[in-house]
Write a structure and sequence with these properties.
The complex is a heterodimer of chains A (262) and B (400). Chain A is mainly α and 262 residues long. Chain A folds into 2 domains: 159 residues, no CATH class; 70 residues. Chain A has a two-stranded antiparallel ribbon. In chain A, α3 runs antiparallel to α9, α4 runs antiparallel to α5 and α7 packs across α8. The longest helix of chain A is centred in the C-terminal third of the chain and has 32 residues. The radius of gyration of chain A is 24 Å and the shape is globular. Chain B is of the alpha/beta class and 400 residues long. Chain B has 3 domains: 238 residues, Rossmann fold; 34 residues, no CATH class; 100 residues. Helices cover 41% and strands 20% of the residues of chain B. Chain B starts with a strand and ends in a 16-residue tail after the last strand. The chains are: A mainly alpha (262), B alpha/beta (400). At the A-B interface, α1, α6, α7 and α8 of A face α2, α3 and α4 of B.
């Protein structure tokens, strides 16, 4: 299952021990710079650097990374194709009057705009994946608490996080049990099996919820969820690397100005 | 005899719109006892166990803890649940938090400990169950045995007097089960009363001080394991099986061998039975020596030096920390369960053996070996790795 895979990779990635704030600042800063940039070059630069960090610092398997990237990549390609066709502009290369008041056209401006959006998506995706692959949820909870997110919200998040995996386990088991008894052999059968899978999952989660209350009661639950661990200290070299990366990216944003592809 | 810690007087309980799960049960449990609750599925074991910490309130009858009737108001229940720790059958149902540290810290946090205290008790509890270094792991990445240990640590962190475990060995492989039983033994040795429910007769038979046989919400029999498991009629009715050693003993008796003394609980006891039958001792040679290494005290160098001078010696480890130490030093272990008995068996063959164990368990080795020596009249020498640190020996001077 995909979600488990992501979290598992994050739990044992190469830069897990780096301070969580540093990783979050890197990722969020990169996203912000991608959005601020008016040229297509800075997002590509950011994507390149972060991909390098994911592959060589976090030591994430290149195949896994590519698989993660492929879905948003095709999504970006399709949206950008749309943008290029309907953005409009003065310098027309090709145009087709589809309806009297609506025409599809490819212009210099639309290509530039499409390229910019596409590169922003690539840059932003690599930043998102960077956070997802290097920062496990368990570390993010600590950051949430330090940022004064209400306790109730964090407690709920932690219970949900824990329950997702239990529920997922059960769903996989039920699914396998159905497949083994040819549950998904025909289309009709598939719909039927899927419905009963949902029903069984609902009952299982209800059960798990009651058990959770009992388990918490048995351990003297008094409205307090467990304390969180501590964040790692900010070390000099990783801190410096992050600052250099962000400064360099900002410099690229400023230097590239409004350079366009054509 | 130590004082009574838990007592039930004519408990009755019926599930809403269901059958009567507990129909008139009375018994008592003493401090530092190891109790095995045995019976078929649906006998009411789990229901009874959940009454011990007030999760279920009996319809009628009285449950006493420390000679006080259990009160069911919130404050009293909190105190009770701190003192009676409950470990559920499925660790997944018990582990709530997203990391091991947080889960073990759950109880202490809610008991209002300070941060430093929480850190201390959690570290101690994890050390106890042999999961040091697992603090930041999420539970779904752990194996079944490790999850079980996390669940036990979560309860241990609250430092209860009584530990109640529902099916502690279900879903574990044989060696995992043995490890858990040994952990329970260790905890019992540190003064905790332990109550488990189980189907596994073979594991419960040598382990328990007393066994309670349950069937259909009633107690069928309550006695020392030799007696509780010794009645084939009851065993059949409770859908259990006779422990192999008891069955062997019974078959020998049927064939006209007069076996004196208590019924065998371990292979060692069985050997003594055979000696009685064959009227000769198996120990023809000079018995081998048992050496104890106290992993809390003896240095690494001493241990490695000793091991290198005694190659191919049988080694056993008792206790979680001892096993960890063996793993760290890459000492391969021959025995991890029932270690003392197995080393005595080795000694009877004239072979030496080494036991790695923790501070609290050292005396137990002496006690067990001394007891055996007194019974059999064979003197097995026991010595410590570091002779200069001889502890005060209880029951010293066994053998002849």
């Amino acid at each position: 299952m995909f979600e488990e895979l992501l979290e598992d990779i994050a739990q044992k990635n190469g830069i897990r021990e780096i301070n969580t704030y540093l990783k979050l600042v890197t990722g969020l800063g990169a996203i912000l710079l991608c959005l601020l940039s008016t040229s297509y070059i800075p997002p590509l630069f950011i994507a390149l650097v972060l991909t390098g960090a994911i592959l060589f610092l976090a030591r994430v398997d290149a195949k896994t990374y590519a698989e993660l990237f492929i879905v948003p990549f095709w999504f970006a390609v399709m949206s950008v194709a749309g943008i290029i066709l309907i953005y409009g502009g003065q310098d027309v290369f090709w145009s087709w009057d589809l309806l009297p008041s609506f025409s599809l056209s490819i212009t210099r401006e639309s290509i530039n705009q499409g390229m910019l959006v596409f590169c922003r998506v690539i840059g932003g995706m690599s930043a998102m994946i960077f956070i997802a692959l290097t920062t496990p949820m368990t570390d993010i909870f600590i950051v949430f608490r330090q940022c004064r997110v209400p306790e109730v919200v964090i407690d709920l998040m932690m219970i949900i996080y824990r329950t997702i995996f239990i529920l997922m386990d059960q769903v996989i088991q039920i699914y396998h049990a159905q497949v083994m008894r040819l549950g998904y052999s025909t289309w009709r059968e598939s719909i039927h099996s899927f419905a009963s899978l949902c029903g069984a999952a609902f009952i299982a989660s209800w059960d798990a919820g009651e058990d959770l209350i009992r388990a918490m009661d048995a351990r003297c639950y008094d409205g307090k969820f467990a304390l969180l661990g501590e964040n790692r200290r900010v070390e000099r070299i990783p801190g410096l690397v992050v600052v250099v990366f962000l400064l360099l990216s900002t410099a690229v944003v400023i230097a590239s100005g409004t350079i366009t592809i054509i | 005899m130590s004082s009574i810690i838990l007592e039930a007087r004519d408990l009755r309980y019926r599930y809403p719109r269901g059958l009567e799960a507990i129909s008139g049960i009375s018994f008592h449990i003493r401090r530092k006892e190891k109790i095995a609750l045995v019976g078929p599925n649906g006998a009411g074991k789990s229901t009874l166990l959940t009454m011990f910490n007030g999760m279920i309130r009996p319809d009628s009858g009285l449950m006493l803890f420390d000679n006080q009737p259990i009160r069911y108001d919130t404050a009293s229940l909190r105190t009770l649940r701190k003192r009676v720790g409950f470990v559920l059958q499925h660790p997944d149902r018990q582990i709530i938090a997203p990391t091991v540290y947080q889960d073990v810290a759950f109880g202490p946090t809610n008991l209002g400990y300070t941060d430093d205290d929480i850190k201390r008790v959690v570290t101690l509890a994890l050390r106890h169950v042999g999961l040091e270094g697992f603090e930041r792991r999420p539970p779904h990445q752990l194996s079944g045995g490790e999850k079980k240990r996390v669940a036990i640590a979560g309860v241990l962190a609250m430092d209860p007097d009584v530990l109640v475990l529902d099916e502690p060995t279900s879903g574990l492989d044989p060696s995992g089960s043995e490890d858990i039983m040994e952990l329970l033994d260790e905890l019992n040795h540190e003064g905790k009363t332990i109550i488990i429910s189980t189907h596994d007769v073979e594991l419960a038979y040598p382990w328990a001080d007393r066994a309670i046989l349950m069937l259909g919400g009633k107690i069928l029999q309550e006695d020392i394991p030799e007696v509780a498991f010794g009645n084939p009629e009851y065993i059949r009715r409770a859908h259990l099986s006779l422990p192999t050693l008891l069955e062997l003993h019974r078959e020998l008796q049927k064939r006209g061998f007069l076996l004196q003394g208590k019924k065998p609980r371990t292979v060692l006891d069985m050997m003594q039975c055979f000696e009685a039958i064959l009227k000769k001792t198996f120990c023809q040679t000079r018995p081998g020596a048992i050496t104890i290494c106290n992993v809390d005290r003896d240095s690494r160098e001493l241990l490695l030096l000793w091991c290198s001078s005694h190659l191919s010696i049988s080694t056993g480890a008792m206790g979680t920390r001892a096993k960890q130490r063996a793993e760290n030093e890459q000492i391969s272990l021959d025995f991890t369960y029932g270690v003392i008995d197995k080393c005595i068996l080795k000694a009877l063959l004239g072979e030496d053996s080494l036991i790695l164990t923790t501070e609290t368990m050292v005396n137990r080795v002496y006690q067990r070996v001394d007891a055996y020596c007194r019974e059999s009249g064979i003197c097995i020498p026991v010595k410590q790795l570091d002779d200069s640190t001889q502890p005060i020996r209880e029951n010293a001077g066994g053998g002849k």
